[in-house]
Fold this sequence. Notes:
This protein has 248 residues and is an alpha/beta fold. It is built from nine helices and eight strands.
Amino acid sequence: MIRMLASVRDLDEARDAAQAGADLIDLKEPGAGALGAVAAPRIAHVVQSLRAEHPGLPISAAVGDLRPGDHASLEYRASQVGRCGVDYVKAGIPADSASFDLALRSLTYMRSLHWNMVPVLLVDNGLDLRIVERACELRFAGVMVDTASKRRGDLFQCVPLAVLDSMVQIARLHNVMAGLAGALLSKHVPLIRALGPDIAGFRTALCDGSRTGRLNAARVRDLRAQLLGSARAANDTGFEVRAQSAVA
């Protein structure tokens, strides 16, 4: 089953998403970048409330947008977020071929931290599958892909389907959760279902207006139903969905 991650900015949105059936609550501030950080006191308040109201519901939080290789800032921010009691701490890493060496150093450093880190591979300039392979070898609980700039297009405009399929397959071979995100909309559900990741992350599709708008619980409920729905759902994206088995 594909689990639905709902990105929220505060307790009201978190409660709405949880009550509407989201499988994982992800705290980030959409007005502060792709992985904008929510203030630590707010994270702690959300965690405390959801633990009481929805025990067992996983919670993640982003550390904010970082300069590549800024390990000191990563450690400080990860500590701030981790101490709030979240299950996963997310941090972004550029994942294109030109960033290969930097990505590997960042992954190794991230794995050394005390917290349960989940690397978010930023794929605006492409996805080098060697970085996915290394992240899985390091035994992170999960690996996600996302886009840093929502103006440049959605995930499927940045990364070919075959490459995304290989990413999911690599993670599966290593028993690591694979997550897809990046301006995903309702029209992308057939593609997401065909790829079969463990997690599909949404913000824009859940909001009234843009991703900085208010989360709408009805949208959460509807999109989760689509994820769980018939495999015969119409594909109106223009892409041909085909099973991909080769790991590039």
